[in-house]
TrEMBL record:
It comes from Musa troglodytarum. The keyword Membrane applies. One of its GO terms (biological process) is protein retention in ER lumen. GO terms for cellular component: endoplasmic reticulum; Golgi membrane. Keywords: Membrane, Transmembrane, Transmembrane helix. The chain crosses the membrane at residues 36-54, 60-81, 113-131, 137-154. It holds the Pfam family Rer1. Involved in the retrieval of endoplasmic reticulum membrane proteins from the early Golgi compartment. The keyword Membrane applies. This is Protein RER1. InterPro entries: Rer1. It is a multi-pass membrane protein. Belongs to the RER1 family. It is found in: Membrane.
Length: 190
């Protein structure tokens, strides 16, 4: 009998391994396509919101999703090494004007941030398919509590950013001046 169980689990194990390898392949291929990934996540989020709106339920699932997303956002906006808490040999934020510039390293990288958000929306959507997760609650109280929690958390994060003088966003390459073309000159025509 044990031989039958082992033989039956081999195809399942092979299928799982093949699926995992294919999933990792496509996930790795999506890495450089930031805009496309986020548009896909926005589409998943819209589908989830429409599902909750039309079902008129699953507010506790949405609240849990909101708290989880807030936690991910804080990790995304936070530096890897917090100067208040840790002393490390890793790149740290400069605390004085004379300190050497060190690049901002996130606690939660963008790709993992995107992947976690997408996975969270998919799990929340699957939870809306089961009525046991539709706990009756008065949703306006949950919404008000989440908004208060969001503003208090963001206020604390912004104060931390100002105190340690870091900006967690990279807006792209800085341009210092317009490059003059070889045909243009500063001479005026008479």
């Amino acid at each position: 009998m044990e031989g039958d169980d082992a033989a039956a689990s081999r195809p399942l194990s092979k299928w799982r391994s093949d699926f995992s390898r294919a999933f990792r392949y496509y996930l790795d291929r999506s890495t450089p396509h930031t805009t496309g990934r986020w548009l896909g996540t926005a589409a998943v989020a819209v589908i989830y919101v429409l599902r909750v709106y039309f079902v008129h339920g699953f507010y506790i699932v949405s609240y849990g999703l909101g708290i989880y997303l807030l936690n991910l956002l804080i990790g995304f906006l936070s530096p890897l090494v917090d100067p208040e808490l840790e002393v490390s040999d890793a790149p740290a934020l400069p605390t004085k004007g004379s300190d050497e510039f060190k690049p901002f390293v996130r606690r939660l990288p963008e790709f993992k941030f995107w992947y976690s958000i997408t996975k969270a929306f998919c799990v929340a959507f699957v939870m809306t398919l089961f009525s046991m997760f539709d706990v009756p609650v008065f949703w306006p109280i949950l919404l008000c509590y989440w908004i208060v929690l969001f503003f208090l958390t963001m206020k604390r994060q912004i104060v931390h950013m100002i105190k340690y003088k870091y900006v967690p966003f990279n807006i792209g390459k800085k341009r210092y001046g317009a490059k003059k073309s070889p045909g243009s000159s500063s001479m005026s025509k008479d």
